[in-house]
Amino acid sequence: MDVDKMRFSKEHEWVAAEGSDKMATVGITEYAAGELGDIVYIELPEEGTEVKFMEPMGTIEAVKTVADLYAPISGAVKEVNKKLEDEPELTNQSPYGEGWFIKVEMSDPSELEKLMSHEEYQEMIGKE
Question: Tell me, what's the pLDDT at 34?
């Protein structure tokens, strides 16, 4: 996925909107995966669940800590990355690829404008 086309939340989630339809893929950033360390369990919403912008949608458990996951976009969960049930480490290995979390049919694509560009996110985490 092209990080320059993604949008990012201050909670370190990313959204990649797919073309002209309302589908978007959601995951956590490489920075967050690195800060968490070895990820051992990820609890994600079930297919059909409605997630709401910047509200908790699950949890991620690493050796060091447990953290809430926040929905960076509102909509209906259409697909959950089932590979993560047995291989949560995919999020560490490929946060923008095989380690994605959910695919959402966005109910309000304009929410993407409330999120940061890749450049703005890099500034927030202190990487120029």
Answer: 95
